Amino acid sequence: MSKNEFIKGTYMNREYSWTLFNKRVLDQATDAGNPVLERCKFLSIFHSNLDEFFMVRIGSLLNDARLNANAKENKTGLTAHEQVEGILELVRSYYKHADGVYVKLKKDLSKAGLRIKSGVELSDKQRAKCRKYFEAQVMPLLSPMVLDAKHPMIRFENMNSYMMYELEKSDRLMYGVMAISPKLPKLFRIDGGKKTNVITIEELIKTFGADVFDGYKIRSQAMLRLTRNADFDANIDDMDIERDFDFSKFLKNKVELRGTQGAVRLQIDDGADDIRAFVLKLLGLKKQYCFSVKHCIDYKFLMSIGGMLPAADEVALKYKKPLPLPPPVTHDGSVLESALSRDIFLAYPFDSMDTLVRLIDECAEDPRVASIKITIYRLDHRSRIVDALKKASERGKEVTVVIELCARFDEENNLYFAEVLKNAGCTIIYGMGNYKVHSKIVSVVLVDGGEVKYVTHLGTGNYNEQTSHLYTDLNIITSDAAIGRDAVAFFRNIAIANTDHEYERLLIAPKTLKRGIIEYIERETDKALNGKPAFITAKMNSLTDKAIIDKIIAAGKAGVTVKLIVRGICCLIPGIKGKTDNISVISIVGRFLEHSRIYCFGSGNDRVMFISSADLMTRNTDKRVEIATPVLDPAIAETIDGMLSVMLADNVKARRLTSDGTYVLPDTTGEPVNSQEFFLKGKFRL
To answer: N or C: which end of the chain has fewer CB within 10 A?
Structure first.
């Protein structure tokens, strides 16, 4: 399928757009401006992104194709089957490109003093050391099996690697299979020599694994990994509701089923034709779902390979660690007192999440605080937020936690923390009906001298300390009474599963967020039609909602200047003469994952600005509980507006989406602007 079939007029297919985003991630692995260990991470991220894409998106499309083979998506008119066929072909070309990137990275790592060895490259001394390590530390964790009438084929677990062998004994042919334990380390450092020499566990097993099948002749061998469909709906309508029904148990069963769903991809060593044919037949998988591997199946080792080097050498091959920005000025060192007197703005990772943790800690101690309520979607495995909430509950505060058990691939972590918080006395709510609760909000209610006061935190990202160092997110802590009342109403409505409430200030999906965004787009459109200056500037991770896209296109046609920063999927094609020529789109892929969502309408005194947990995707606007909060403080609005201007001027990490659906470097004349590095210096602060 050609690129043109993924583009129709002003629309681009969602899955195709995602592959272009992942290609931009892969491009960072070749960018000489990035230190070599950071380039290794980008290659690892490219591959892990593909893993999830196959599990979720390809899995979902195959489900759709089974349900209704003739149904077409609403932008380019492609059926699910056509999308899968085209994407498989495209991804195959990306794999080939990624192979070349890995070869180049190995050379650059070698120049930097770190050699990744293959089995055939080992010297006799190195080979002896590797064999000794294999026999002592690896072999005990391998589980070999010869397949015959008494040993039927084992089930290939999702995303687990296996070695398969074509065996011969007494003129009889058979197959051997060996699961590779995920408990094994990814790398082994081979002592000796001036340079640091390492070998992957994959390569170690390819080199010595045949020794396990003592007494057999090895005719051929191959490492393989199967990807299974991990897309499932945990829909409350699927079950017979009883009064004492526990949704957490239902979800736990769903998660356990994830590893047993149908196959969507087979990765297998290049050249093992007979083994490949055997496995494909066994799985009933078509050959287009099979991808030959030239180097590695699992590239996660590249995330930590720097740890094999001496500490000083590792530091020299990474991004320079930024100096922490001073925290926002607080009232006598108290975040709570500061928030009661003025709005506080935090921009992660340039600011620290410590300020928010301190706020919850202070609320746990403060006798004026009556209740703390929070939504949780993803948490750090060692969450200080959870510790602060437990402390608050144990000190007699009313603590309510809305924890989304259906946060994909974090279900088990969230199930664990739900139990921990429940045992600490917190009230636990598992979302709202069939809507995922993706909102990011903390509501604090105080009773001070008989007066009810509110402090509310609203953000664009998760309450996850780890990702707050890696993702760009915006946060506002405010004592605005109307927002405080909205926050209290929000949690009350979650508790009673009510989505129809009309809020004073907040836009909340599925009821008012999409409607509100469209109304502001239409406001700017009306201004343009009446000859007035009109502007829309927005930043998000993805843009797929067709109703909103059509409103943006209409605004551009009317003369509204539309500037979009869309990191990932963008289904709108800008720059088409007479249709979208007033619309520009850039994507920034850099050191940090761009994650903040900002929606800005108008300019000057007429400007209305929101930060939000929601992307402009149908899943967010129609099928989730999301929040967009207005930025009320003029100084904070000016700060965010300044950040948008810097991002729009980025000519280092930004790429511009053109009218033919390709991403190109923006104009690089003049001073180079790397927006993330600019913000690291604290220059976004007014």
So the answer is: C
Sequence-separated (6 or more) residues with CB below 8 Å from residue 39: 28, 29, 30, 31, 105, 108
Please write down the HEC assignment for all residues of 256-294.
HHHHHCCEEEEEEECCCHHHHHHHHHHHCCCHHHEEEEC
**What does the alpha-carbon distance between residue 629 and residue 443 come to, in Å, rounded to a whole number?**
13
Which residue, among 440, 368, 454, 353, has the nearest Cα to 403 in the 3D structure?
A: 440
Contact 511, 499 (CB under 8 A): yes
How far is Cα 75 from Cα 589, in angstroms, rounded to an integer?
Answer: 25
Question: For the whole model, what pTM was predicted?
Answer: 0.92
Best CA proximity match to 74, nearest among 173, 172, 8: 8
pLDDT reported for residue 487: 98
Alpha helices in 157-310 (DSSP H): 201-208, 247-257, 273-283
Q: Which residues contact 456 (CB under 8 A, 6 or more apart)?
A: 441, 442, 443, 444, 477, 478, 479, 480, 483, 484, 487
CA 412 and chain centroid, separation = 17
**DSSP-assigned letter for residue 327:** P
Sheet architecture: strand order including 263-269: 142-147, 172-180, 161-169, 217-228, 263-269, 290-293
Residue 1 is encoded by which pair of tokens? 């399928």
Q: Give the alpha-carbon dihedral of 418, 422, 427, 431, to 10 degrees.
A: 20
The residues annotated as belonging to the active site are 438
Question: φ and ψ at 58, to 5 degrees?
Answer: -65, -40
Going by C-alpha positions, the residue among 516, 517, 440 that lies closest to residue 476 is 440
Question: Hey, how many other C-beta atoms are within 10 angstroms of the C-beta on 223?
Answer: 24
d(CA 279, CA 164): 10
Take residue 331 and report the two structure tokens written for it.
């009232």
Amino acid at 411: E
In terms of DSSP bridges, do strands 535-540 and 597-601 run parallel, antiparallel, or are they unpaired? antiparallel
| pLDDT < 50 positions in the chain | 234-243, 250, 257-259
Residues 659 and 640: their CA atoms lie apart, in Å, by 28
The reported pLDDT for the residue numbered 242 is: 45
DSSP label at residue 324? P
